[in-house]
Design a protein that fits this description.
With 619 residues, this protein is of the alpha/beta class. The two termini are 53 Å apart.
């Protein structure tokens, strides 16, 4: 196995281009697969290689898991196995727990099981023997795994990929050379695939170093696991001479300043795709950037900061479930009326949600949906009395028209409400497929058929397709009857998933997490929200899988994640020509002062040749 150590930035790109050229020297069509740390690095690598004089021929760039999925999943399905979707796995976890969990507890178990899903049996045994709490967690995990039968997940696909590399000479010939490019650590399943490739001399590893021991620990651990000798002296630490610190009053102004920087650079001749606006997590900064960039007319690309719950169809479904599960309140009912372009099933015309909101207030609707129709009947009857009390003279003509309009519109609202309450009525328990059929009927009745989605914005229509797939998966969970609350919990958890990517990479400003930018090169980078507690993030010990148990089983610990975060930060700053690290002086969410990241304080102290405190940067 050939191993190449490199710093981040232009040197890393040059190292990859030279490695591809060497593999295809003498055979320009020799197959090459570049295994990247994320999908955006794959797009960046593809664009970079395509711009070289040799062009891009028979070279694929994609994350290792995507490569395994491409080559192995069809074989697994042909053998009778089925992909393990998130809905089925969440249902298996829920069924394995001895008591009915709250949605928060269920999320915690699903999150803790992410690392266990890639662990070997020996690792699971080590974790189970190390800590009583971890022993219960592992036992629950094994119980959940036993219920999914022959379904497979991403780690199962990687394990099957490793086995096929050893057993299938034709696969090895078709695969050609795999170039591992700039990984930031790896899971046990990924390491198994890399070792299989190395055993058959199919692997070239290009490993990036930041020059900081703690940040480079994940890469060095991967190298050790693959039997690669780690250099005694780290690569030169990337200089941060082009890094600047920016203060802002609050996150909103941080984003405005970042977008103003983009516009200034554009005036100076820079391209949109030269820019990246990054953050540790997409909430709240991703939403703010997307909203303000849209208002400013600046094209962006990257992961969608919205969850499916935040889309029009997602809001509609969540509100319907809340109305069905709880005693209906007027505010919740009105929120549903305004959640999208609702239709009145009696006329198939657009519901007048704003006017109906006014009428519900005037009629005195408050709580308990069972009283809504009688209350509206009483309001209509009173307006009839008011109408009878008016004079037929012209002086009361305007008043009579207003009362008549109230009667007509309240009658329409009354019929709509009665129909909706009837549609909400369901048995306490029914099969998964019946619940899915029920919610789909509600959607068709009040949002119209799928053909109506052609008028929706593209983001909303694409999100609706993903939600349709979620409903399909829920409908196939099994024949057992479940409660309305159980169906609502699992649907809600699935809708918490993120939406699809927005924009087209390379045609707009990239907006995403710092970890999304690892392996990509941007000339101008702004990192938002660099406050203490975010960079580095404060991570509490997992009560289900504490670090003591994780270390015993060789699983990822909080220290490992902190090192990966630091590695991604240094890699991103090293690959850019200019980096602006921005932080707000106030945290509106917590209603308190915000302090700059200790990473910024340390860097500023190095530049000033004298120790500085956080207050010095806030001054």
């Amino acid at each position: 196995m050939e191993t190449l150590w490199t710093a981040y930035g232009p040197r890393a790109a040059q190292t990859l281009a030279e490695a591809v050229a060497r593999v295809q020297d003498g055979d320009p069509l020799a197959p090459v697969h570049v295994a990247t740390p994320n999908r955006y690095a794959a797009l960046s690598a593809r664009r970079m290689l395509a711009g070289r004089p040799r062009g891009l021929a028979n070279v694929r760039c994609e994350p290792l898991r995507q490569l395994a999925d491409l080559l192995v999943t069809p074989t697994l399905i042909a053998g009778g196995a089925q992909p393990l979707g998130s809905a089925r796995w969440t249902h298996a976890v829920r069924s394995a727990l001895s008591t009915r969990p709250t949605p928060t507890a269920l999320r915690a178990f699903v999150r803790a099981f992410v690392d266990l899903r890639g662990a070997t049996p020996a690792q699971l045994d080590a974790v189970q023997a190390s800590d009583p709490r971890a022993a219960t967690t592992v036992a629950t995990f094994r119980k959940a795994r036993a219920t999914i039968g022959n379904a497979f997940d991403g780690d199962d696909t990687l394990a099957a990929f490793a086995a096929r590399i050893h057993a299938d000479s034709q696969l090895r010939a078709d695969l050609g050379t795999v170039i591992l490019w700039l990984p930031n650590g790896s899971t046990p399943a990924e390491t198994e695939v890399l070792q299989a490739l190395a055993d058959h001399h199919l692997l070239i590893a290009i490993l990036g170093l930041t020059g900081e021991d703690e940040a480079d620990a994940p890469v060095r651990t991967l190298a050790t696991n693959l039997g690669i000798s780690v250099p005694a002296i780290a690569a030169d630490r990337p200089t941060l001479d082009a890094l600047r610190i920016r203060r802002a009053p609050d996150p909103e102004e941080e984003v405005r300043a970042a977008l103003r920087t983009v516009l200034t650079n554009l005036d100076a001749g820079a391209a949109l795709h030269d820019h990246a606006i990054l953050m540790r997590k997409l909430d709240p900064y991703g939403r703010i950037v997307q909203e303000q960039a849209a208002a400013a007319g600046i094209p962006i690309a990257g992961p969608d900061a919205r969850s499916l719950r935040d889309t029009m169809l997602g809001r509609f479904m969540v509100t319907v479930l809340n109305l069905a599960l709880h005693s209906m309140h007027r505010d919740e009912y009105v929120a549903w009326l305004t959640s999208g372009p609702l239709l009145d099933p009696a006329t198939n015309e657009r519901a007048r949600a704003t006017r109906w909101d006014q009428l519900t207030r005037a009629a005195g609707l408050v709580a308990d949906g069972a009283t809504f129709v009688p209350t509206l009947d009483a309001f209509i009857a009173q307006r009839h009395i008011d109408l009878a009390a008016t004079s037929p003279d012209d002086i009361d003509a305007g008043k009579r028209r207003a009362i008549t309009r109230d009667i007509d519109e309240a009658s329409t609202l009354r019929g709509f409400t009665a129909t909706f309450l009837t549609d909400l009525a369901t048995p306490e328990e029914q099969p998964w497929s019946a619940w899915v059929a029920w919610i789909r009927t509600i959607v068709r009745t009040y949002l119209g058929p799928e053909s109506r989605r052609r008028a929706w914005p593209d983001r909303e229509a694409n999100a609706a397709l993903r939600i349709d797939a979620i409903l399909e998966a829920l409908g196939n969970l099994g024949p057992e009857s479940v409660s309305r609350a159980t169906f609502g919990e699992l649907l809600g958890l699935e809708l918490d998933g993120s939406g699809e990517a927005i924009g087209r990479f390379g045609t707009g400003v990239f907006v995403g997490r710092v970890t999304d930018a690892t392996g990509s090169s941007f000339r101008h980078v702004t990192i938002l929200g660099m406050t203490d507690g975010q960079f580095p993030a404060v991570r509490r010990d997992d009560p289900l899988l504490p670090d003591r148990a994780r270390r015993a089983g060789g699983l990822t610990t909080r220290a490992d994640r902190r090192a990966q975060d630091r590695h991604a930060f240094l890699a991103t700053t090293a690959a850019s020509a200019t980096t602006i690290c921005s932080f707000p002086v106030a945290d509106p969410r917590r209603q308190r002062k915000a302090l700059p990241s200790r990473w910024l304080v340390h860097w500023a102290s190095e530049q000033s040749a004298a120790p500085l405190g956080a207050e010095a940067l806030c001054g």
